[in-house]
Amino acid sequence: MSVSGSSPFPSKSLQNLRVVMAQLDFLVGDIPGNTERIIDAARRARSKEGADIVVFPELCVTGYPPEDLLLRPSMHLRVTESLDRLQSAQLGAAIVIGVPVQTKGLLYNAAVVIEGGNITGRYFKRFPPNYQVFDEKRYFAEGEGAAVIEICGVPVGLTVCEDIWTDGPVEDSAAAGAQLIINLNASPYDIDKQARRKALLERKSRDNQVSIVYTNLVGAQDELVFDGGSMVYDHSGSLAVEVPQFNEGLFPVDFVFDRRCQPVSQPLPAEPSVEANVFNALVMGVRDYVNKNGFKSVVLGLSGGIDSALALAVAADALGPDRVRAVMMPFRYTSDISLEDAAAQAGSMGVQYDVYSIEPMYESFMAALAEPFEGTTLDTTEQNLQARIRGVMLMSLSNKFGSLVLTTGNKSELAVGYSTLYGDMAGGFDVLKDVPKTLVFRLARYRNSVSPVIPERVITRPPSAELAPDQKDEDSLPGYDVLDQILNFYVERDFSADAIVAEGFDQADVDRVIRLVDLNEYKRRQAPIGIRITERGFGKDRRYPITSGWKSGN
């Protein structure tokens, strides 16, 4: 869009402005509900915080990402009704919102300014992203040019999310006279994301001599978690304000004008550990998925192992123990230690805990299969049958009581197919889907540092599926410290087999792991969705064919 409304500052040598960052959680598709949420937040920001401008996240009217809802014929009508409602709401403060705007047969991801009951400016996102989890070019056209809009008498440059990651939009706005850049975001979480955002904003603000208000969405949508972490940088590239991640709220920041637009610095939050951040992301992912989809409770199989122990801790923290049911389903290979530890954790967390042996059901199945299995030897078929009986048990409890089944497979296991279709993969949501096994151990330690809920020997004993006598995970897999590094190179960083070997790994281990990853795409395609915490999870990030003649190598 072309520059509009740019003007010099008022003649006063000093002017104060209060901007409130509305770091809020919106429900995708609930346009009327989101509209009322915006109105309520704007009014509270004005009455309680004295806001002059309230800045909302990207596509807050529709929620993010709206995906193919954007293709629905009624989308334009509903958005128009929302904008009419927002203009007539008498908010008292100017607002900057994210909304899809259709014009001249094209759809844009837009930032819209409403002040004094009128739309006073709008900006069309110039760089719709089309990588990793993003496919905005499926829906949105590219905007053109900068938009410097006068808001409360101040020339403000508008940008939307990806625009700040690409050279052009901030630079053009600064050149057109903007003294303040407002950037609306729906930037999903991954482990290193906040550090990358800070490095970017520091450079952009310093190089262009402008202050930047970076307002991010918070909450979870399907596999994505939006961590908030909204920030303000001053014109010198210094971080003036940072909002705690994973927290909803209205966060004010004051600006003083004396030739430059300068934010008043606030105390910064303590830097969270990686483990604390990931755990918070998992908690938010479970809470929003369960609540937004209307489930009353969750149920999961508690085996006495570390994966289900961590998943239980996340679920109980996310929903409260009264909404969580843990079920131990022992078999002849289940150790007394597993029974004791599962009961101890369920008791310490105060969740409903039931024990149902699968022995009678297993015997019934084996009796029914005696004739077709005659003359064969025991193998993984009988092991998988145990897992599938447990899956049937959990899904039956889900149907009867309206509980969502949480699965507990971690990223390392899913990568190499160390899981059973229609068994431990049966369920609606996988808490640890993107969490490597080595990180599972670290997260268990972290959660116990908050309060000791996971028995120590669950963390220290060798992992086992307990589907056969004396079974250990590492009997059929490389050690998890090696496996997770190979998986990181291959899955998240796209290294070839030869390149991974060049990093110092054994050729046989590399070839075996890569072969297992490729062979088990068909399993992952049928797995429940789960929370994304890395730059490339098994979901929208990684779209590989099931049927393929591709060979590993260089």
Would you kindly provide a written description of the structure presented here, covering whatever features stand out?
By secondary structure, the protein is an alpha/beta fold. The protein has two domains: 253 residues, Nitrilase/N-carbamoyl-D-aminoacid amidohydrolase (4-Layer Sandwich), CATH 3.60.110.10; 198 residues, Rossmann fold. It is built from 17 helices and 20 strands. Helix 1 packs parallel to helix 2 and helix 5 crosses helix 12. The chain is elongated. The two termini are 45 Å apart. In the C-terminal section; belongs to the NAD synthetase family. Belongs to the NAD synthetase family. Catalyzes the ATP-dependent amidation of deamido-NAD to form NAD. Uses L-glutamine as a nitrogen source. InterPro entries: C-N_Hydrolase, Gln-dep_NAD_synthase, NAD/GMP_synthase, NAD_synthase, Nitrilase/CN_hydratase_CS. This is Glutamine-dependent NAD(+) synthetase.
Quick structural summary:
Residues 17-257 form the CN hydrolase domain. By secondary structure, this protein is α/β, with parallel strands linked by helices. Helices cover 36% and strands 20% of the residues.
